[in-house]
Amino acid sequence: MNTNTKNKGAVKAGDGTYIFALPEMAGMEAGIGYSTAFGPVVEGERMQVGLISKPRGTGAKPHTHPNEQWNYIVQGTLRVSIGDQPERLCGPGTLLYFPANIVHSTVATLDEDVVFLTVKDLSHGIHGKAVDGTMDGGYFEPGFENK
Questions:
Q1: Does the pLDDT of residue 147 top 90, yes or no?
Q2: What's the rounded Cα separation, in Å, for the pair 75 and 73?
Q3: Which of 51, 93, 135, 136 is geometrically suited to a Cys-Cys bond with 22, CB 3.0 to 4.6 A?
């Protein structure tokens, strides 16, 4: 079995390894340079899945990636912007679809941390690229800056 992963810190599935206790697994940064996303990521042959958290008042700057993505919100509320659609507040039970190469951002509201299950194809890794090109860290609401 190929144990190499596309994402440093991810776990490879397959070859007898099929069941994963995501909440108990070590996490990794899942948006280096543009997001506060953090959590365990498991890679199959064609898909990658993560149980990702964003602390309240933080999130992802507008960014893109060449692979499509699904997020299913488990806990908390995200302020979501996708393409030219109006920004919306989305809570637990909401499924979000981000087409490849479409600008989007998600920020946890001030109420509580957010947890979501993410699924992306493996044509690209878990990371994207900030639209403004800065890649200097995630988004922070005033008063929630990285300390």
A1: no
A2: 6
A3: 51
